[in-house]
Amino acid sequence: MSESTDTDVIVVGGGLVGLAAAAFLAQHGVRTTVFEKHPTTSIHPKARLVTVRSMELYRSLGIEEEIRAAGDQGNGFVIGQTLSDDLSTWIAPPAEDVESGNLSPTSPYSCDQQVLEPLVLNAARRFGAEVEFDSAVLGLAERADHVEATVRHAGQERIVSAQFVIAADGAGSAIRRHLGISMSGTEVPGRSVSAVFRADLSPALRGRFVDAVFCRAASTFLFARGNSGDRRWQMGTYVRPDWEGRPTEDLTDELSGLLRQATGLSDLEPDFDDVATWSTGAFVADRFRSGRIVLAGDAAHIMPPYGGMGGNTGVHDAHDAAWILAAVIRGDASHRLLDTYERERRPIDQVIVDQALLRSRKSPGQKEASGEIDALTLALGQRYGAPPGEEFEDPHEPSMADGTRAPHLTWRDGRSVHDLLSRRQFTAIVDGPITRTDSRAEFVALGRGDVATGQRDLWANTYGRAVGHLVRPDGVLAGEFEALDDVPGLIDRALHIR
């Protein structure tokens, strides 16, 4: 790594995606500095769902159990006339095969973003990343071999240099605009209002645990915030015509009335912590990289919040970008590897944005729309480099194709194959005796007798198809081999050395 710059990677934006990028980069041993203009991590709940793939990535950072302690399992999405009435399932909780460990060593979870972000921040700092709050990046200047950022903190400006920049500065990304990168897509008509409030809804709940509910009587969504015993909730609804142009703080009487309708509690007196109006759309940046600057998260794609896909997709962007930048910074890879970030992520992100838009157009209570891809496939079935229309596959039937996630199997001692993968190097999974033929890979023996008894047929249909399989540092398959001497060539190919 070069010591001629102040840091290796500057991450602009210390929200969930920026902090995740810093954690993944620092885990690779990359000097990383995050600049966030706000004084702290997010104080708003924002997203709540953590998909199974995101939980796998957080597991790799060592914070899975912290997330479980801070959040709750969730029980899907229910619907009813009011919260006081009988409720029926709209969107089911996580699939049973995920819970039973057949597809992953972990499972989806619910954790409010303002609770999750500090956990990711702590992980980033444990790995050595520097995170500066109250620090605004005023501009970037790209040079031949580095990027210079003008940073303002406490009224003082300074120049910070880095080999690369990850722009995780949100949907209104100033960096994306500075680079002249357009976004393609469509607006979602209308405006919405969300409000965080505190109230005792136990008379309506009657001992039931509700994670998310749509109340038909008021056309209003309610989301539990915090652990299940908290009295903190978030409501979401559309902006009524006579609300347009009014300050959000003037809407609390109308919102209180809607909450009484939604909950069926005529004497409810909620205390509001925050009220905000917003609009959304479905857009994807036309390019995900310009020179030494990479876009991630909302800077690269904007989507309706339905399905909780936005933040999770951004974390997956960050994970892909991290191993690529680390390999280039270390000098292990050709700069041509940088081109793979857009080639891999943009088609996947486009499909996910389209799926979020499709879900946003469903009627409340509608189970499934034509063309809808299930959440489990979106999380675990991504296929980098696949032909158009084939970007996802059924995770129950892994193809073992290059560019797909290495499937989970349970090791005979109870660990997952994922727990055996190297976080910084390639991993060669071998059915048979091991002779290490390349210092850039860890070699792991995984024969039929090494996996749990109940998963040996799955082994035969996945890792048992060849003598060995190469896995990239991001947990994605990079080729199969019949001889250990083939491993160096596969690594060279994956790093675009030849």
From TrEMBL:
<dbReference type="InterPro" id="IPR050641">
    <property type="entry name" value="RIFMO-like"/>
</dbReference>
<dbReference type="Pfam" id="PF01494">
    <property type="entry name" value="FAD_binding_3"/>
</dbReference>
<feature type="domain" description="FAD-binding">
    <location>
        <begin position="6"/>
        <end position="356"/>
    </location>
</feature>
<dbReference type="GO" id="GO:0016709">
    <property type="term" value="F:oxidoreductase activity, acting on paired donors, with incorporation or reduction of molecular oxygen, NAD(P)H as one donor, and incorporation of one atom of oxygen"/>
</dbReference>
<feature type="region of interest" description="Disordered">
    <location>
        <begin position="386"/>
        <end position="407"/>
    </location>
</feature>
<dbReference type="InterPro" id="IPR036188">
    <property type="entry name" value="FAD/NAD-bd_sf"/>
</dbReference>
<keyword id="KW-0285">Flavoprotein</keyword>
<protein>
    <submittedName>
        <fullName>FAD-dependent oxidoreductase</fullName>
    </submittedName>
</protein>
<dbReference type="GO" id="GO:0071949">
    <property type="term" value="F:FAD binding"/>
</dbReference>
<keyword id="KW-0274">FAD</keyword>
<dbReference type="InterPro" id="IPR002938">
    <property type="entry name" value="FAD-bd"/>
</dbReference>
